[in-house]
Each structure stands twice: as structure tokens, then as C-alpha cells.
Amino acid sequence: MTTPATTKLTRSRSNRMLGGVCAGLAHRVGWKPRTMRLAFVVSCLLPGPQFLLYLVLWIVIPSGDR
């Protein structure tokens, strides 16, 4: 039985709009960065602390090589 390859969660340095959080998350889950950004913008239309979560992730997730 083989284990799936995991990627380390890092912020993108080359494919960033603000902090690279959405691009880093997209790379981690195998999505396109544009899809993750769209999902984030749509989620901001719902009530909740989405923008604060983005800021926290920006601080917590280390910057990566890509």
C-alpha cells in the first residue's frame, strides 16, 4: 500500500494577489489558484470572519519557494 504524497502548506511567492494564501491553499488541495480565489470571494458574501481568517493565515503560513 502506497501513501499519497503530501505537500507542505506554504504561501505562494510567484502567484500571489495579496499574500499568496489562496494560491498556497489551491496548490495544497490541487485546485487552480483562480478557483480558490473565487471561492474565497464568494465566501466573503456570507456572514462570518472569512477576511480575518485570511489575515491569520497570512501571518501563520510560511512563505514558500514557488
From TrEMBL:
Asked if the keyword Signal belongs to this entry, the reply reads no
The transmembrane segments are: 38-61
Q: List locations, semicolon-separated.
A: Cell membrane
Specify the Phage shock protein PspC N-terminal domain's residue ranges.
Answer: 8-63
The answer to whether the entry has keyword Transmembrane is: yes
Keywords carried by this UniProt record: Cell membrane, Membrane, Transmembrane, Transmembrane helix
Write down the Pfam families for this protein, in alphabetical order: PspC
Membrane topology per record: Single-pass membrane protein
Q: What is this protein called?
A: PspC domain-containing protein
> What does the organism's lineage look like at the top?
Bacteria, Bacillati, Actinomycetota, Actinomycetes, Pseudonocardiales
